[in-house]
């Protein structure tokens, strides 16, 4: 903001302006970054104090007193002079903490604050993604349960196939999200800090500081990890943590994006069929030219953001594969963009996903109309089996049904008339069945197999344990921008 007005004379990322939540934006904000740097400097000073270096409690208390009131202007002025962001913030912190000035960053390299902070921020980002993912799973499970007995045409190759139920189809979307949650939980469980390992990962500076006391040096990483809320630091490293960690993290995000994209595709196709529709607000405009339109813009936005995240996952893969020896700096500019933007985009995707599922509209009469137009074709297998039981020849019956199906299909496609397959079958003496008897077979629920039971079993055996173990995470409502 400048003088109360937005700054409209420069680029503003739509990820922040339109898509990502305030919570995710804060995780990747300068405040989060630089406050974490100061927490890491405090953790280092406390560890060195505990292990016997001449650092006083008074110095540590002074650092703690100023851990959150960052003097940004002092840091910016210093960076213009020294061209080094970490040393600029060491200097600025020292201005506020004159007694502790001489021991800030003692024995550490820039990667001590930079890389450990990156791990902390990605971990917090994954936790927020996880919370939103669990809430989407919860909302989608409610939808699946509500419509578990609503028959609908299933599609293979987007051609009408043996019916399913609306709820059963929702479990397909659900199960992909469950797989994503499993992947996310695994990666979260492997997140480790870099620790404090020095310029090439050998802890040579600490060997000097502690006069070669190996036992004390071995304790440094564990103490820092504990103070920062982690179980451990990586066992070995160069100057940085392996950039393969970023690849793992972005692959999880890309997996979530792919699942959301698949869902959004299906919703858009169903909306075209007028069977299921995403939320459409009372005053929402679908098209600037065609006032009657109700475009699936939220699902389209999900797909658009998902394309970005899926392609973004290539960035850390390239970066990690091209690092030289103990470190190079050609990762820095790429990481600054690819990692935060991947998180911000997935955050927006999950907010949209939750919003769409929460407001999905199911048009059951349209669904049944479409099903009844196709059901005669799908009933033919049962009709043929009944005729075989009555003494008919299976191969002759199959050929006759094929011929009659072609005639009925031509009538529907070329003449635009109703499907008269049942009438044609009833007129054939070889089937020995009346039209009324055939029509009695057209109960859609006879053709959905175990769809309803599968939904019940899936929700009970897979989804309920997930939701029961994550009750504290539930209850989110997605707020999306226009």
What do you see in this structure?
It is a single chain. The protein has 482 residues and is mainly α. Helices cover 63% and strands 4% of the residues. The chain has 20 helices and four strands. It has helices at 14-19, 22-27, 30-50, 57-65, 72-82, 85-96, 110-146, 166-190, 204-209, 214-227, 244-272, 297-312, 314-321, 332-358, 364-378, 380-389, 394-415, 421-426, 435-439, 451-468, and strands spanning 151-156, 159-165, 276-277, 361-362. α7 packs parallel to α14 (332-358). The two termini are 21 Å apart.
Features:
about 475 residues, two-stranded antiparallel sheet, elongated
List the helices and strands and how they pair.
Elements: H1 14-19, H2 22-27, H3 30-50, H4 57-65, H5 72-82, H6 85-96, H7 110-146, E1 151-156, E2 159-165, H8 166-190, H9 204-209, H10 214-227, H11 244-272, E3 276-277, H12 297-312, H13 314-321, H14 332-358, E4 361-362, H15 364-378, H16 380-389, H17 394-415, H18 421-426, H19 435-439, H20 451-468
Antiparallel strand pairs: 1-2, 3-4
Helix pairs in contact: 3-4, 3-7, 3-10, 5-6, 7-8, 7-14, 7-20, 8-11, 8-20, 11-12, 11-13, 11-14, 12-14, 16-17
């Amino acid at each position: 903001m400048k003088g109360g007005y937005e700054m409209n004379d420069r680029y503003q990322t739509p990820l922040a302006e339109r898509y990502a939540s305030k919570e995710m934006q804060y995780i990747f904000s300068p405040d989060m970054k630089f406050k974490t740097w100061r927490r890491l400097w405090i953790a280092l000073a406390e560890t060195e104090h505990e292990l016997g270096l001449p650092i006083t409690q008074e110095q540590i208390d002074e650092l703690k007193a100023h851990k959150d009131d960052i003097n940004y202007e002092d840091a910016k002025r210093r960076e213009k002079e020294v061209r080094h962001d970490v040393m600029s913030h060491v200097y600025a912190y020292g201005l506020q903490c004159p007694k502790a000035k001489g021991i800030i960053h003692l024995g550490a390299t820039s990667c001590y604050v930079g890389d450990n902070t990156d791990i902390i921020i990605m971990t917090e980002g994954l936790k927020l993604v996880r919370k939103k993912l669990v809430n989407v799973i919860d909302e989608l499970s409610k939808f699946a349960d509500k419509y578990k007995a609503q028959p609908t045409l299933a599609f293979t190759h987007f051609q009408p196939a043996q019916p399913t139920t609306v709820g059963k189809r929702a479990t397909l979307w659900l199960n992909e999200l469950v797989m994503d949650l499993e992947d996310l939980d695994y990666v979260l469980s492997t997140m480790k800090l870099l620790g404090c390992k020095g310029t090439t990962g050998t802890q040579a500076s600490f060997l000097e500081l502690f006069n070669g006391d190996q036992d004390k040096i071995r304790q440094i990483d564990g103490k820092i990890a504990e103070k920062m809320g982690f179980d451990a630091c990586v066992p070995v490293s160069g100057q940085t943590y392996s950039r393969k960690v970023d690849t793992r993290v972005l692959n999880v995000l890309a997996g979530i994006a792919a699942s959301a994209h698949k869902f959004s595709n299906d919703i858009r196709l169903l909306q075209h069929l007028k069977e299921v529709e995403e939320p459409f607000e009372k005053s929402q405009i679908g098209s600037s030219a065609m006032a009657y339109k109700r475009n699936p813009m939220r699902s389209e936005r999900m797909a658009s953001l998902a394309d970005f995240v899926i392609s973004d996952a290539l960035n850390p893969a390239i970066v990690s594969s091209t690092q030289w020896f103990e470190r190079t700096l050609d990762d820095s500019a790429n990481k600054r963009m690819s990692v935060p933007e991947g998180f911000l985009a997935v955050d927006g995707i999950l907010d949209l996903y939750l919003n769409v599922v929460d407001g999905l509209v199911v048009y059951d009469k349209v669904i049944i109309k479409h099903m009844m137009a196709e059901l005669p074709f799908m009933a033919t297998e049962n009709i043929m089996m009944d005729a075989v039981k009555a003494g008919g020849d299976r191969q002759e019956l199959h050929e006759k049904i094929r011929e009659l199906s072609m005639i009925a299909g031509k009538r529907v496609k070329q003449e635009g008339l109703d499907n008269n397959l049942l009438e044609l079958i009833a007129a054939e003496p070889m089937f020995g069945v009346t039209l009324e008897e055939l029509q009695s077979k057209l109960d859609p629920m006879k053709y959905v197999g175990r769809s309803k039971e599968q939904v019940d079993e899936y929700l009970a055996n897979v989804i309920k344990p997930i939701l029961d173990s994550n009750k504290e995470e539930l209850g989110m409502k997605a707020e999306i921008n226009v």
